[in-house]
């Protein structure tokens, strides 16, 4: 019975991954701002896709 209780508990959030993700998003925002491009531009979508790929690894 004790083992099943351990499975019911959710793993704690990975705060370092969250911080890294937020840092990547801020960097992307700064880069897009410097390039004078918005998130809906081709460059913005490419950067978003790149960040999502990094986050999935």
Question: What does this protein look like?
Answer:
With 57 residues, the protein is mainly alpha-helical. It has one domain. 74% of the residues lie in helices and 0% in strands. It has helices at 2-8, 15-35, 42-55. The longest helix is centred in the middle third of the chain and has 21 residues, at 15-35. The model has no long low-confidence stretch (mean pLDDT 76).
Name the beta content range. under 5%
Tally of separate helices: 3
Determine the structural class based on helices, strands and strand pairing.
mainly alpha
Low-confidence region ranges: none
- Topology as H/E string? HHH
Distance between the termini: 34 Å
Specify the helix fraction band. over 70%
Instruction: Count the domains.
Output: 1
What profile does the largest beta sheet have?
Answer: none
Shape: elongated
* pLDDT averaged over residues: 76
Radius of gyration: 17 Å
DSSP strand count: 0
């Amino acid at each position: 019975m004790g083992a099943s209780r351990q499975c019911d508990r959710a793993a704690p959030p990975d705060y370092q991954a969250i911080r890294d993700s937020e840092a990547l998003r801020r960097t992307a925002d700064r880069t897009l701002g410097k390039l004078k491009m918005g998130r809906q531009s081709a460059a913005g979508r490419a950067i978003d896709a790149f960040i999502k790929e990094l986050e999935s690894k």
